[in-house]
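Researcher: Hi, I'm a grad student and pretty new to this. My advisor asked me to get structures for two proteins we've been looking at. I'm not sure of the right format, so I'll just paste the first sequence and hope you can take it from there.
Model: That works fine. Here's the first sequence with its structure tokens right after it:
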Amino acid sequence: MVASPLMAKYGYHVRSTSLPSTSHPLTARVEDELNKLRGWVVANSSSLNSVVVLQEGLCGITCLYESVEDLLRLSHIQQVLVHHRHEKCVDKVLDGSLRLLDVSGTARDVLLQMKEQVQQTQSALRRRKSDKFDMRSEIDVYTSSRKKMHKVIEKCLGDLKKMDNKHPFSPSEKDQDLVALVTVLREVEIITLSVFESMLSFISSSRTLPKSSGWALLSKFKNNNRIICEMQQDEGGNEVATVYSEVRTGQISQKRLEILETSIKSLEEGLENMFRRLIKTRASLLNILSN
């Protein structure tokens, strides 16, 4: 297993109330990864403004699910799940794994749309010197596309909040192993949702601009570099929001777009690794419960 980059940076040593200290050593690995991610969430809850930080979170989730996979390979854990396969709390574990896949699919679609937006804008800049090039049209298309994507993200964030507000699992069983297992899997789901929420919030964030067309903004800000600089500072270093502001004001550069495209691709890679882990974990649960 590859060491998590969160280990050194976010050493968040908090005793969990989930699995008992006498459980299998692999259980401790799940708790360790959970604590690192809790530290990541706490450290970045107020100012997540870097793709690099998001990559850390996605990598941390991947490491977390590697430890969950190891936990599910334990024969005792498999026996507990099989014995209680018809319990409501086990059904909720399966439902949670499906919800995570749905959210992951939405996030992947959003990143793909973002990348297409950036590539279209790059193409527009290359045609800028052409007599037939219409900058006003390109800005309006970008703005419209961005607004549609923002609505999708806002809906997804709303759904995430509803998931997070659901009551935690409260198995009434006397089987403490089941209670412990279900509790830790619920914690894994919650922390995964937190990382998704952080990523989607980062992507959707943009300083509120006047309600006018992109072309009107371009005319207003065309020669006012001071306003552009102030807008960039207000974005707090968020490269996604900064590019959005610069495109709307006609001050974007190819270099800035290339950097953003590279960042998006790195997030896509991290999300793809995470998606594969989510699929593998759900498949493992289904295989265990079908025996």
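Researcher: Oh nice, that was easy. Here's the second one.
Model: And its structure:
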Amino acid sequence: MERILAEKSINITELRKNPAKYFIDEPVAVLSNNRPAGYMISAEVFEELIDLLEEKQGRVHTAARFRPNANRLSDIAEGGEKLLQSASDKDLTEFAE
């Protein structure tokens, strides 16, 4: 049997009715077939957890991960293409990484 690591719990059906209601100042276990499927926490609690992890690991900042979905990546590529097509020769010679 899996442990439930939160004092409050809800099932997925209840969660679907009003998800925002469960982003509170403590973890809420989300159950599927009476087993924990995951946990919900508020943004404030998440930030506190990240701060604690960074402190424990001796890091000041955690590296961000860039993982756009296919639609977002396509939008970024199209935007870049438009910028390149409208760039002047001067803009392109002043480019630096």
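Researcher: Is there anything I should tell my advisor about the second?
Model: You could mention this: The chain has a mean pLDDT of 86.
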